[in-house]
Design a protein that fits this description.
The protein is an alpha/beta fold. Helices cover about 30% and strands about 15% of the residues. Strands 3, 4, 5, 6, 7, 8, 9, 10, 11 and 12 form a ten-stranded mixed sheet that branches. The chain is globular, with a radius of gyration of 25 Å.
Length: about 425
């Protein structure tokens, strides 16, 4: 009986050992078969950004329950690189809302900044990633023109970011290095200094790229082709929210040329796409550009990946119908990098694909082919999240660093939820 028990125990130990080796071998197989070293594609599991392919980074989307890191798209397809030579208004472009309002941007010395944030990387990086429109709030401040958030149209030291010329010089550097690219700047304008904006853009070296107001279509006709704009070096479009500056400084009045839906919470409400009150009606035939705002009143980094999933595609369809089957030319968002995989970049590809070649994505377009002739393109589908690395609290990581991104907007929303705070500033 004793011998029988010893033999049985030995058999169990042997079986346990075999099972352990089998599990260990399976783990090695999973590791060897998983992607790494830049081979991972969109929604593939990853440990750090170097696992993901070109134009991707490693992040997550806890707002949708996706806490395990996976590869997320971080760069736009420039539509003119696929099908070029069309009028400017035939394309869709990515715009960052409050492009200057960047998490982690240093405040004035000795001042604690007290405002909302809308983006997470520099304007230079935004442009490198395919952003082609910048929304900038400009104010008279400290004897100069600054980028700032506002209370009652006035810039304060606790809402100021930096002199506007710093960001404009980033734009100039980009245009200088990329001679075939076109950038649009939309100014929420609180500058009262006479000729202040004219001097600002000239000092930043951007006057040489200026698209003249005299050449802008005013009756809803097509814009010049992108080829013509590049050849003439008219590669910077600038719009202001102040109507008088079109005559005074030659800066185009925004709502004379752009149709626009309501910004903030009304612009993200499901099933509707209300006309912005300053804008011409959607059925107007005198404006040939359409700016679609898609960002909530109070920006929250953690929620942006959810906002940029299915709800964004639904909103594009809604606004397309509301504007009389007019596809948006500009898509303005907060935290443009955050998504559940493809995000704003996939939606832009879809918009450009439909308008340029009649395909569901621009990747299926074939230059010179008849409209509707599409390549067979397979879209990536989510794969099981098997990576056991912890959740990334800050998904915008373009290196091996996984440091936490600070989320100051949570505090701002909490404070502004109290009526006394609202009455204090508005």
């Amino acid at each position: 009986m004793t011998c029988f028990m010893d033999h049985r125990d030995l058999s169990r130990a042997t079986a346990t050992g075999y099972l352990f080796l089998l599990l260990l071998f399976s783990s090695f197989i999973n590791i060897w078969s998983s992607c790494s070293n830049g081979s991972c594609q969109v929604v593939d599991s990853c440990s750090h950004s170097t696992d993901c392919g070109p134009g991707l980074f490693c992040g997550n989307c806890p707002a949708l329950g996706k806490t395990q890191p996976f590869c997320i798209r971080g760069q736009a397809t420039i539509p003119t690189s696929v099908i070029g030579g069309l009028p400017f208004n035939k394309y869709s472009w990515l715009v960052t809302h409050n492009s200057f309002s960047i998490v982690g941007a240093p405040a004035l010395p000795g001042v604690q900044r007290f405002t909302f944030y809308n983006q997470e990387d520099t304007v230079t990086n935004q442009l490198k990633n395919g952003v082609r429109g910048l929304m900038l709030d400009m104010y008279d401040f400290n004897g100069d023109i600054w980028l700032c958030h506002s209370f009652r149209g006035q810039c304060f030291n606790f809402t100021a970011f930096q002199p506007a010329i710093n960001t404009l010089r980033e734009v100039e550097a980009f245009l200088s290095k990329n001679p075939s690219d076109i950038v649009t700047i939309i100014i929420e304008d609180y500058v009262h200094t006479p000729k202040g904006l004219t001097k600002l853009f000239k000092n930043a070296g951007l006057d040489k790229y200026w698209f003249p107001v005299s050449k802008m279509p005013k009756k809803g006709e097509d814009w010049p082709t992108v080829t013509e704009m590049v050849k003439a070096n008219h590669r910077l479009l600038v719009f202001t929210s102040v109507a008088s500056k079109e005559e005074e400084e030659g800066i185009a009045y925004q709502w004379k040329y752009l149709l626009e839906n309501e910004a903030g919470d009304p612009g993200v409400k499901p099933g509707s796409c209300p006309n912005r009150k300053e804008s011409q009606p959607f059925n107007s035939k005198t404006a040939s550009l359409f700016l679609m705002n898609y960002f909530p009143t109070y920006p929250v980094e953690d929620e942006a990946c959810k906002e940029h999933s299915a709800p964004l595609a639904d909103r594009i369809r809604t606004c397309y119908k509301a504007a009389g089957s007019m596809m948006p030319n500009f898509l303005a968002v907060n935290f443009y990098l955050r998504s559940d995989g493809g995000g704003v970049f996939y939606d832009l590809d879809s918009m450009n694909g439909q308008r340029l070649c009649g395909c569901n994505t621009i990747a299926a377009c074939q230059a010179g082919a008849p409209f509707g002739s599409c390549k067979n393109i397979s879209m990536p589908t989510p794969s099981p999240m098997t990576n056991s690395v912890g959740s990334f609290s800050g998904p915008v990581q373009f290196s091996t660093s996984t440091s936490t991104v600070y989320h100051p907007n949570h505090l701002m929303i909490a404070l502004f939820s109290f009526p006394w705070m609202i009455s204090l500033f508005f």
